[in-house]
Structures are given as C-alpha cells and as structure tokens.
Amino acid sequence: MKKPRYDKKIIEPRKKISKKKLFTIIPIEILEDKSLKANEKILMGEIVTMQHNTGEFRATNQYVGDILSVSSSRASSIINDLRKRGYLHSYQHFDMAENRTTKRTLHAKVFRDSQCFKVHKKIKASKP
User: How, if at all, do strands 88-95 and 7-10 pair?
Assistant: First the structure.
C-alpha cells in the first residue's frame, strides 16, 4: 500500500503572530549531519526558526525557492526529499466549510530535541 504524501488535518484558523524574524537558527544536529546538502541545511534551519517563533512553517514553494535561489520545482523536490527521508512532516490543512486545502505547513522532526532550544529555555527561565 502506498504511503500518503500528506496527512490531512482539520484546523481552526489561528491568529497571526506579528514577530519579525531577523535571523535563522541552524541547530548543531542539522549542521553536523553529513547526509544533508547545503540547501537542505539552510531550509531546515529556516523551518526550525519559523517553527520556534510562530509554531509552524507555512510557505509556498516559490518562497522557499527564493530563499535557496532555486526554482519552485527544485524547492518542491528538496522538500519532498527531506520528507521522504524523515526530516520533515508535511500537513495539508483542509477547510470543511470551503471544501478545499487552505495551506500546507512543514514541521521539522528534529526541532523538539535540538540542543540549542534546550539551552535557550534555560536562559529564559533564569532571567528575573
């Protein structure tokens, strides 16, 4: 049986977060992974940073292509390759009222246990 490309998720609309991202964090676990190419590491860093700031990474293939200086079709193949190798999980958000997919979000599977975020939480907790 063929594994589905995306998991469908019925979601409530979420309020926008007005944080501006000034930099990208690439966890050491991603940097040291020899199986990832440079563009994949940059994309993973971008996803991890946005996931940390806003809770999700939702961007079009065109936006990803602009970040990496590649075409949108190449960006799509990079995303699919990372997803197939287990680095990313992709969700299609389905709106039942309009009966259509409203957005795609990407979630990095390395995000939760990354050492840089554990240190960041300790620093935040120690501030008065």
Answer: parallel
CA-to-CA distance for 58 and 16, rounded, in angstroms?
12
> CB-hemisphere CA count at 13 Å for 81?
14
Tell whether 122 is covered by a domain: yes
pLDDT digit string, tens, across residues 92-124: 888 888 888 788 888 888 755 555 455 544 444
Q: Domain limits at 114?
A: 36-126
Cα 4-100-48 angle, rounded to 5 deg: 60
Q: Is residue 89 in some structural domain?
A: yes
- Specify the pTM: 0.68
Residue 6 lies in a domain: no
- Please report, for the chain, how many H helices and E strands are present, in that order: 5, 3
